[in-house]
Amino acid sequence: MSTYAIGDVQGCFKELELLLDQINFDETNDCLWFVGDLVNRGPDSLKVLNFVINLGESAITVPGNHDLHLVALAEGIMQAKKSDTLAPILESPDKQKLIAWFRQQPLMHHDKELNFSMVHAGLPPQWEILQALELASEVTQFLNSGDYLSFIKVMYGDTPALWDENLTGNDRLRFIVNCFTRIRYLNDKHELNFSEKGAPGSQDGNLFPWFTINDRKSKNEKIIFGHWATVHLGNIRDFTPYNVYPIDTGCFWDGDLTAMRLEDEKLFSVPAT
User: Fold this and answer.
1) What region, left, alpha or beta, does residue 130 occupy, with left being phi > 0 and alpha being psi -120 to 50 degrees?
2) Residue 192 phi/psi, 5° resolution?
3) What confidence score (pLDDT) does residue 87 get?
4) What 8-state DSSP symbol labels residue 26?
5) Sheet holding 59-61, edge to edge
6) What are the start-end ranges of the H helices in 123-268?
7) Is pLDDT above 90 for 120?
8) C-alpha angle with apex 137: 134 to 8, nearest 5 degrees?
9) Which H or E element spans position 224?
10) 1: which of 84, 86, 111, 237 is 20 to 30 A away, CA to CA?
11) Are the beta carbons of 102 and 67 closer than 8 angstroms?
12) How far is CA 129 from its chain centroid?
């Protein structure tokens, strides 16, 4: 049995099929970890989503910002963007089942035996792995409660920017979601910054990639993440001193779709077609 973590698919079903052929994926023995943003931008989001759901226990998925955008669209809370390619899902007779599935997925996955954690975007420096898992569960439980729409309506926003154990209500939930699905940079006060989206090295001098913060409490844990396609402009191995594995290699942006076998950290990739 092998476990493969796969970067942001974003509706690129053809490339996903090619990648699974390359790794000789065996649904009966292997397991796939999807790092989020299964859908949107690419041409075949509905195919990707149905394929992953049908894998059942052979797949583990954490939702990304595009996946939560789909939930908000389906609930009539957000307007579609020009770049969205989500209409086939929204028009599907199975729409409610598909949206409910996304709401049930954990924002973080941790495997003690493999010694890997997976999130879509990242973690703030104040959280240890156990705390992060508990906070992820807190959000998932709320998203599956009868009151989840009350948060979806106010989910979008850049505040609060700094973690505080005393945060409550929607502010607490929004901060947690922002970290798991949107974080890239923090300033020297450890406040989240969402205005800068470029590759590391292109940012203002007082901004730092989340994984480079010296006192990050999760720095001794191996963390797989996606979301940030420009991170891979260097070599993915350049990031192992930080114990992070950025595997969004920009398939939709004419890059590659990448998988990493967790047992030996071997990389596999196929180019965008």
Assistant:
1) alpha
2) -65, 140
3) 98
4) -
5) 59-61, 31-34, 3-6, 256-261, 266-271
6) 129-143, 148-152, 169-182
7) yes
8) 110
9) strand 223-225
10) 237
11) yes
12) 16
Residue 90 is classified by DSSP as H
Q: What would you measure as the largest C-alpha separation in the chain, in angstroms?
A: 49
How many domains does the chain contain in total? 1
98 vs 40, 45, 217, CA distance in Å?
14, 11, 35
Residue 258: strand pairing partners: 269
What confidence tens digit (pLDDT) does each residue in 58-93 have?
A: 999 999 999 999 999 999 999 999 999 999 999 999
- Cβ 262 vs Cβ 253: under 8 Å: no
Dihedral sign for Cα 134, 136, 137, 142, please. positive
Quote the pLDDT of residue 240.
82
Tokens of 256: 């590659």
123 close to 179: Cβ distance less than 8 angstroms: yes
Q: What is the DSSP string of 134-160?
A: HHHHHHHHHHTSTTHHHHHTT------
112, two tokens: 């003690």
Q: Is 204 left (phi over 0), alpha (psi -120 to 50) or beta?
A: beta
Which is nearest to 188 in space by CA: 167, 162, 166, 164? 162
pLDDT at 206 over 90: yes
- Which CATH number characterizes residue 69's domain? 3.60.21.10
Q: For 160-200, what is each residue's pLDDT tens digit?
A: 999 999 999 999 999 999 999 999 999 999 999 999 999 99
pLDDT-derived band at 234, boundaries 50, 70, 90: low
Tokens 């590391």 locate to 200
Residues 135, 141: Cα–Cα separation, whole Å: 10
Domain residue limits at 227: 3-271
